[in-house]
Amino acid sequence: xxxxxxxxxxxxxxxxxxxxxxxxxxxxxxxxxxxxxxxxxxxxxxxxxxxxxxxxxxxxxxxxxxxxxxxxxxxxxxxxxxxxxxxxxxxxxxxxxxxxxxxxxxxxxxxxxxxxxxxxxxxxxxxxxxxxxxxxxxxxxxxxxxxxxxxxxxxxxxxxxxxxxxxxxxxxxxxxxxxxxxxxxxxxxxxxxxxxxxxxxxxxxxxxxxxxxxxxxxxxxxxxxxxxxxxxxxxxxxxxxxxxxxxxxxxxxxxxxxxxxxxxxxxxxxxxxxxxxxxxxxxxxxxxxxxxxxxxxxxxxxxxxxxxxxxxxxxxxxxxxxxxxxxxxxxxxxxxxxxxxxxxxxxx
Length: 348
Description:
By secondary structure, the protein is α+β, with helices and mostly antiparallel strands. It contains ten helices and twelve strands. The protein has helices spanning 55-72, 94-110, 116-122, 131-137, 187-194, 201-220, 224-241, 243-246, 253-264, 285-302; strands at residues 2-17, 24-44, 49-51, 78-84, 141-144, 147-148, 162-166, 172-179, 269-272, 279-284, 306-312, 319-323.
């Protein structure tokens, strides 16, 4: 049996409340993208093998497989192959998409019945935001409920629920600029950084008002100008949450110039996704290619290494295919036999 899963990146457009005074913390805003994508395949066989050219990525995949295997008490005799990947640590949600794709494929391979949100807890996702989880399941434009604070002050383990999900307009596009060098925060670094944030309630109140009275009405009425203006305002205010961590509204000095040029080139709104360094500009379908080309020229002139992509919103969840196939011979130079025969690859 072979299971192949394709899932897509997302933009994290901001947090609504980092004060938590009403009993909920965070409250994320985001949208699922058509590109970039992660595609993996999982085939049943007699031992675990992982194909990826990067040893750190193989190590990460093995760690995810081990978490799944411990929970469900299985021996993961599968061949895992990564066909394409969302760029890591760029603010596009690569970690959650990989974890959810892998866990979903393993449930199919072993006939395990469980929900996406239970899987996210097992795989250690949804600690603050569930935009990536809901993107994997449904796609679209999403706002989540934030994490509830329990009586002992500890945040609930379950990922936030989606309080709003809406199809992103087909005629709208994002021009996404992905710098090559800088990496955004993740894992323990992100956890430590969040501990330094102590914003005033007024900032959260301003963001919530923008979301309810400007962003959402513009989305439903397909007013791209109003929606873009609200995006920019929310992005600026969200960035103010993280000035103590980032040293400014954006994680990179070059982001200020890139965002300024996106807006000057005709984007209706612009901002940084998550911790960056990826930044985005909202455009119409008709204007997207020309604005993207202007950004490529700008990066070259500014000697900023990176790439520019055009993405639409994705209004569907991950694509899951279950196929019958013979186990593939991926080649010993890239396989990691991590459980049954670790000594053969020097892993014991």
